[in-house]
């Protein structure tokens, strides 16, 4: 049974003038409450943001938003969560065109002019659609930048829709697939004024986000969540009827999340024997309401949620939070008891039947199998029974891991299985005589963002907090770091002292430090200090064999080839010291082993034909096997769908990898 968990934020309005004076206090209380709530509802897989992330939708607003979110993501990492961001734009996330524009005026009468609607949907380059695309251009640029800087292993599929900000994402845990569909409900709200009952969500948006067939897409997931900015009642009456009939009929979505109204609200409605519909309107993270007499009311809140997927039912739990005055005159985020939540758990729960999908399994005549098992989608977390052995790399890595004070670098192109190999190696090490005394500290540089990577202090401080949490928890761990940072020394000296004097002596057995996606740091301001620290630790661990340093093992995963592409001296020195383990493409035998796991009894010529299309790239080969088992046909048409990297750049990348590999063993 998979558990998917999330935070629901909405209506931050970053860039609002009131943020200057009030946001630091709100942020401080939010961080404190996240620390409290993480113990009840974490770790979180996603942060769902239902619009109005900014106030004006400008590039400057989104640049400031990057910094604010970066701070929160560092808090998540410290707490042990690595959430992916799933946002949709709101009516404040666009740069409003001139209200006097003829196009804006014409679109204000959308519901009364079918000709405008027809032109808008039939031709992407018409003046109406281009007005919308231009208005959301800074949002689109920001989202592309964020997704580039914060890739997620949990999100295995991401497709974009017809309008800016629309997407369909698939999250995979323990082989279960949760879908999240985000639709743009703000594209008609291009000017000021009251748009209640004047907006529209068209069914074409839903199908466009899902690659053309939303029904088939939803059927391929255990449950699907819909995300919009506006509540359904803000749609035009005719659009509301279309929404209920064609976009969100009773059993299509397990949950609909939205914001816009600033006040929180939850609703579960069941009519007769039909499936219940669940809606959750989020409290604004930073809302400001102005009354007729000039008084203002600030509203701050959010919620956490999780969905446990069983065999045929799911359990939904929601932890609503709201800012309320305290006895001292300040304010605190607390459980929102207006939702009738459990006084001990601080949440409300609901169990419901999962939607029964149309079977996607091919007939047994199409594939010969002995005992069918649910296929694992590519990119899913490590599972030993689905692991394809890489004997050469395993032997090399394990021999280095077991040496005192070793440092290992796992090299290979993206999606070549570095993390999967790492999980196998850690599991093998855990089988030894000191299995109960293995401590693993993981730091994925792909989750930290440019702001942290460009700051040596933020980067080393983040690592310090991760290390401290191996020997202490919460405030006690923070105090260990604070004490080390008060010492009169350099940043690297403070961190090294913390590790040598406090962490390693208190750590039973070996401490394995894992740095994932190290290539994200190349060329950043923090590169020299970070890899300089790793180099000095590696030297100490290999030379001071009778000191606590001998407990340390360092493993770095990178998709770049440092010797040939990195000029930073500290980086090169670290990788010169680290033992290289290079991942190459799968051999024909390994591809055959992978096909056997999917119980595809293909003849050799069929497997060779597939390798002719995607090579031995583990992820892409796995993707084609998974698609085949789902009833798709492998043919020459697959070639047209391959990316430039697969077709044109794969060979040169592999050639570089092999060249480095040959030099490493000479």
Task: Provide a descriptive summary of the structure in words.
Strands 1, 2, 3, 13, 14, 15 and 16 form a seven-stranded mixed sheet that branches. The two termini are 48 Å apart. The chain has 666 residues and is of the alpha/beta class. It is globular. The chain contains 23 helices and 21 strands.
Number of helices: 23
Helix content: 25-40%
Low-confidence parts:
358-373, 631-666
Mean pLDDT: 84
- Characterize the overall form: globular
Please count the beta strands (DSSP E, at least 2 residues each): 21
Classify the beta-strand content into a percent band: 15-25%
Distance between the termini: 48 Å
Backbone CA Rg: 26 Å
> What structural class do helix, strand and pairing data support?
alpha/beta
Note the main sheet.
7 strands, mixed
């Amino acid at each position: 049974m998979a558990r998917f968990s999330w935070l629901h934020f909405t209506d931050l309005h970053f860039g609002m003038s009131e943020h200057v004076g009030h946001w630091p206090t709100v942020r401080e209380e939010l961080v404190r409450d996240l620390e409290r709530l993480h113990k009840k509802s974490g770790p979180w897989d996603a942060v769902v943001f239902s619009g109005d992330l900014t106030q004006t939708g400008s590039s400057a607003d989104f640049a400031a938003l990057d910094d604010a979110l970066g701070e929160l993501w560092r808090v998540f990492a410290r707490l042990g969560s690595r959430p992916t961001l799933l946002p949709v734009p709101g009516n404040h996330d666009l740069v409003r065109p001139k209200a006097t524009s003829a196009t804006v005026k014409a679109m204000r009468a959308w519901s009364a002019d079918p000709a405008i609607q027809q032109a808008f949907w039939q031709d992407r380059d018409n003046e109406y659609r281009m007005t919308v695309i231009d208005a959301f251009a800074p949002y689109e640029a920001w989202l592309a930048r964020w997704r580039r800087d914060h890739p997620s292993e949990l999100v295995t599929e991401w497709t974009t829709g017809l309008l800016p900000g629309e997407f369909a994402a698939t999250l995979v845990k323990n082989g279960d697939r949760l879908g999240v569909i985000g639709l743009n409900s703000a594209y008609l709200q291009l000017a000021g004024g009251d748009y209640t009952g004047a907006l529209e969500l068209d069914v074409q948006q839903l199908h466009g986000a899902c690659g053309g067939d939303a029904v088939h897409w939803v059927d391929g997931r255990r449950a699907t969540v819909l995300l919009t900015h506006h509540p359904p009642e803000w749609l035009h009456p005719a659009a509301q009827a279309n929404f209920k009939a064609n976009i969100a009929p009773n059993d299509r979505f397990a949950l609909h999340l939205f914001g816009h109204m600033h006040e929180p609200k939850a609703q579960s409605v069941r009519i007769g024997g039909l499936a219940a519909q669940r809606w959750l309107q989020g409290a604004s993270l930073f809302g400001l309401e102005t009354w007729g007499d000039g008084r203002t009311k600030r509203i701050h809140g959010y919620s956490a949620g999780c969905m446990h997927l069983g065999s045929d039912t799911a359990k939904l739990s929601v932890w609503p939070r709201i800012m309320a005055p305290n006895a001292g005159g300040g304010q605190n985020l607390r459980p929102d008891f207006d939702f009738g939540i459990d006084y001990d758990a601080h949440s409300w729960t609901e169990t419901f039947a999962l939607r029964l999908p149309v079977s996607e399994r091919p007939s047994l005549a199409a594939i010969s199998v002995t005992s069918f098992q649910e296929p694992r989608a590519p990119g899913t977390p490590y599972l030993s029974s689905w692991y394809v052995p890489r004997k050469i790399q395993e032997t090399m890595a394990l021999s280095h891991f077991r040496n005192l004070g070793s440092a290992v670098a796992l090299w290979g192109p993206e999606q070549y299985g570095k993390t999967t190999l790492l999980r196998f190696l850690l599991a093998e090490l855990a089988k030894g005589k000191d299995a109960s005394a293995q401590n693993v500290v993981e730091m994925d540089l792909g989750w930290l963002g440019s702001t942290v990577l460009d700051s040596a202090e933020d980067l080393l401080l983040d690592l310090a907090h991760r290390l401290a949490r191996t020997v202490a928890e919460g405030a006690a761990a923070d105090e260990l770091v604070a004490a080390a940072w008060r010492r009169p020394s350099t940043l690297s000296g403070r961190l090294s002292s913390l590790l040598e004097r406090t962490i390693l002596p208190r750590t039973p057995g070996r401490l394995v430090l894992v740095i994932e996606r190290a290539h994200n740091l190349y060329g950043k301001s923090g590169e020299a200090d970070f890899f300089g620290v790793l180099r000095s630790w590696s030297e100490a661990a290999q030379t001071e064999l009778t000191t606590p340093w001998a407990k340390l093992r360092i493993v770095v995963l990178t998709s770049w080839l440092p010797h040939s592409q990195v000029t930073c001296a500290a980086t090169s020195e670290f990788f010169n010291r680290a033992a290289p383990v290079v991942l190459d493409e799968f051999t024909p035998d390994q591809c055959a082993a992978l096909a056997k796991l999917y119980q595809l009894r293909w003849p050799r010529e069929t497997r060779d034909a597939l390798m002719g299309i995607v090579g031995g790239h583990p992820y892409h080969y796995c993707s084609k096997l998974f698609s085949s088992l789902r009833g798709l046909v492998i043919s020459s048409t697959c070639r047209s769908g391959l990316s430039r990297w697969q077709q044109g750049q794969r060979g040169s990348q592999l050639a570089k990898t092999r060249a480095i590999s040959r030099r490493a063993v000479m």
